[in-house]
Fold this sequence. Notes:
With 146 residues, this protein is of the alpha+beta class. It has helices spanning 3-27, 36-46, 55-59, 66-78, 100-122, 127-144, and strands at 52-54, 82-87, 90-98.
Amino acid sequence: MSDSAAAVTAWEALFRAQVSVMRYLNADFPSGDLSLNEYDVMFNLSRQPGRRLRIRDLNQHLLLTQPSVSRLVDRLTARGLVTKMADPDDARGIVAALSDEGFELFRQVARGHIRSITARVGSTLTTEELATLTELCDKLRLGATP
């Protein structure tokens, strides 16, 4: 098999696995309180120092367009789960921060989501395979960064 054919075959396997797992996780998502996209925004904010990030930078972590991210942040802000403020380093930018209430809701939803991930991914692969998968995915992600 040529290098190109091997790369395409590997990509197709990765893509199909991702679609299959995401369909399962989406169908099994544990809460009516948040959509999976809202959870993803809150997950990414929860991993940042001070649980805050410029919306422009948040967009780099998501598979959504900038306007979609802004609308999601606005919806979460209206619910008191996220706050928005001008960036103190650049007044043109907006910083989104996870509120205490938002962090608590995120943690509650995360517990159920973790159970679902464990059932679909953790029960399919061994601990060693999970470590290899993590290593390979990190390598792909870092290699794809412009």
